[in-house]
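Hi V.,

You were right to ask for the full record rather than a summary. Here it is.
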Amino acid sequence: MTKTDQYFYGLGRRKAATARARLYSGKGVITINGKTADEYFSSSEALLSELLQPLVLIGKEKQYDVSLVVSGGGLSGQVDACKLAVAKAVSAMNEDLRSTLKKASLLKRDPREKERKKYGLRSARKREQFSKR
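Predicted structure:
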C-alpha cells in the first residue's frame, strides 16, 4: 500500500477508544497499529471475528485491505471502535450498502461512557457499608 492508493476513511469511537480506518482494495489483510489483526487481538478469537462483522455482512472480507490506527481504552472498546470505523468506511465506499449496515446496527455509536466518581463515595455509586452502631 502506497500513499497514492485511493482509500475510504471511517472514524469510530467507543468508551475511551478511538479508531481511524482506511479501506483499500486488496486481498483481505487487516493491520492495526502496524501489526496484523491476529497479533493485535491474539488474546481472543471472538474479538477478531467481531472486528470483521461489517465486511462479512457485505460478503467482501477478502476483497479489501483495512489499515487501522487505534488509541485509548481497552481491547473491548477498541474492537467496537474499529468495527464502527470499518462500517463507516464501507458506507463511504458504497452508499447502497448503508441500509444493510444500518439494519445490522453497525453504524450506531454506543454512547455509554464510564460514570465519574462522586465525592464521599467509593466509586460512582458505591457507598460505604452501613453500620448501625
